[in-house]
Write a structure and sequence with these properties.
Elements (H helix, E strand, L loop, with lengths): L4 E2 H8 L2 E2 L4 E2 L1 E3 L9 E4 L2 E2 L2 E2 L4 H6 L4 E4 L12 E3 L3 H15 L3 E6 L4 H12 L5 E3 L9 H7 L7 E5 L7 H9 L3 E4 L13 H8 L11 E5 L5 H10 L3 E6 L6 E8 L4 E7 L2 E7 L4 H16 L4 H7 L11 E6 L4 E7 L5 H13 L8 E6 L8 H14 L4 E5 L1 H9 L5 E5 L2 H11 L5 E5 L7 H8 L3 E2 L1
Parallel strand pairs: 4-5, 5-8, 8-9, 10-12, 10-13, 11-12, 13-14, 14-15, 15-16, 20-24, 21-22, 21-24, 22-23
Antiparallel strand pairs: 1-3, 2-9, 6-7, 16-17, 17-18, 19-20, 19-25
């Protein structure tokens, strides 16, 4: 594997002291996922100290470790680079990775869909050039510099996800990434615990434009209520912008679509041309995701027609609508894993997908819903609204997890109430014992509700096929 960083380059980037010559083929901040050749950065926090895992990381194949002090028991001559502060060192290394890159860089943020859009852009661009992109949801003050530090110098494109739950956070991340293109997928009611209104959320999302390069492009959802605030901010920094959506003035205008139980057919008009493609993921929200991705791809100078022809190859990331057909001992069932996170908009989108799934005469549509977090004083009202969506979207039975979802569960018609528990662990044996042949099970909730545990247990019941 090609070298990503030489010891001298890391030392120059961080101002650290290096004791020996080495090179790294990757960068990691988690000793549990170290790959051979990685540089392990020993971060420190209020409840952890990465220095406790330096020896383990080196034993697992790390090429060196970035430290602020030498841990006890470390062998003499171990490959190290010592800095005053390892978090500052991570940031400096990320900035150095970005500075040396001549690639065309895209930043993606939004209340819903940012990971899916980031992954879609990266996969479609990979058919037209070399791409580096942030893995999973590495989108915060740790994940963004880590992702930039992993950016190979020769990558033609870079796609980075930026997240926030407080005002001011995106400004620093955007200045670090310095994108040519910045995408805001949508502005919705999320993180209300830290914001007073949708307008405040829009202003916080608009911070992503603060780091745009001269001549940069903002990609905006023309159908979204936050459009005006986003456009005004983009204008204030001198950015060009492209819009997407069904609005009559959208640049990437959705002219027609057909929603199916497993796929969608999409027709888009852009700059006088027509794009027709099939999306092998159900749901209108995925159509919107695809429009945002195509607008971004066009804005970095790639071939948008080639990208549209490749959309059919896209599949959802884990925990974001990925579907599994599970063959257990005595029955088969369908699992929709949307367990990574949830807010009111994404739960409604998931329920709409569930409503369109074909079921056998014996099968049922089951929704396993966990708490939506960070909704502040609006939390109870927003959870209660989900009860009406359940009824509107042909859900047969609801299993609910968490104290917040209890209000929603109690508001359901008796015939739709299956079971409520305070934790996802308590629900495991219940949902497993209730499953029948032909059932379709949607699992959805905020990350803190730990709905992924239910997904893992359901997948363990059999094999996919």
């Amino acid at each position: 594997m090609d070298s990503l960083w030489k010891a001298v380059d890391v030392a120059n980037a961080t101002g650290g002291r290096v004791g020996s010559d080495w090179h790294a083929t990757g960068v990691s901040i988690d000793s549990r996922t170290i790959r051979s050749g990685d540089l392990f950065i020993a971060l420190r926090g209020p409840n952890f100290d990465g220095h406790d895992y330096v020896i383990d990381a080196l034993g697992r194949g790390a090429s060196a470790s970035l430290i602020s002090y030498k841990p006890k028991g470390l062998k003499k001559g171990a490959p190290l680079l010592e800095v005053k502060d390892t978090f500052a060192g991570l940031n400096q290394l990320g900035i150095a990775g970005r500075t040396r890159s001549k690639g065309r860089i895209i930043a993606v943020t939004g209340s819903v869909g940012k990971t899916s859009v980031k992954e879609t852009i990266a996969k479609l661009l990979s058919r037209q050039g070399s791409v580096s992109f942030s893995l999973g949801s590495l989108n915060n003050q740790y994940g963004v510099p880590l992702s930039l530090s992993r950016l190979p110098e020769g990558s033609e494109f870079g796609v980075f996800e930026l997240g926030m739950n407080h005002a001011g956070e995106l400004t620093n991340l955007s200045l670090m990434v310095r994108p040519l293109v910045a995408v805001v997928t949508t502005v919705e009611i999320a993180h209300l615990e830290n914001f007073e209104s949708l307008e405040d959320i829009a202003r916080a999302k608009a911070e992503v434009f603060g780091g745009l390069q001269n001549g940069g492009v903002a990609i905006l959802n023309r159908d979204n209520l936050g459009f005006g605030i986003l456009k005004n901010t983009a204008d204030s920094v001198g950015a060009d912008f492209l819009t997407f959506g069904s609005h009559k003035d959208a640049d990437f205008k959705l002219t027609s679509f057909t929603l199916g139980p497993e796929s969608s057919k999409v027709q888009v008009r852009f700059d006088g041309a027509e794009l027709n493609y099939k999306l092998n993921i159900p749901g209108y929200h995925w159509i919107q995701n695809s429009l945002a991705a195509l607008a971004a791809i066009h804005s970095v100078g790639a071939d948008v027609f080639e990208a549209a022809r490749s959309v059919a190859s896209i599949s959802p990331p884990k925990g974001r609508g990925l579907r599994h057909h599970v063959r257990a001992n005595n029955f088969d069932f369908e699992l929709i894993d949307d367990s990574y996170n949830a807010n009111p908009v994404s739960i409604v989108a998931a329920l709409k997908v569930l409503s369109r799934v074909r079921i056998s005469s014996a099968g049922r549509r089951l929704a396993v819903l966990g708490d939506m977090l960070e909704l502040g004083c609006e939390s109870r009202a927003l959870h209660l609204k989900i009860a009406g969506e359940v009824t509107d979207n042909k859900v047969d039975l609801v299993y609910a997890v968490g104290l917040r979802m209890r209000d929603m569960f109690d508001a359901l018609p008796d015939a739709k109430q299956a079971y409520w528990t305070e934790t996802s662990e308590e629900l495991l044996s219940v949902i497993i014992s209730h499953l029948q042949h032909g059932d379709v099970v949607l699992v959805k909730g905020s990350l803190g509700a730990r709905m992924g545990l239910i997904v893992d247990e359901l997948l363990a019941l059999g094999v996919e096929g």
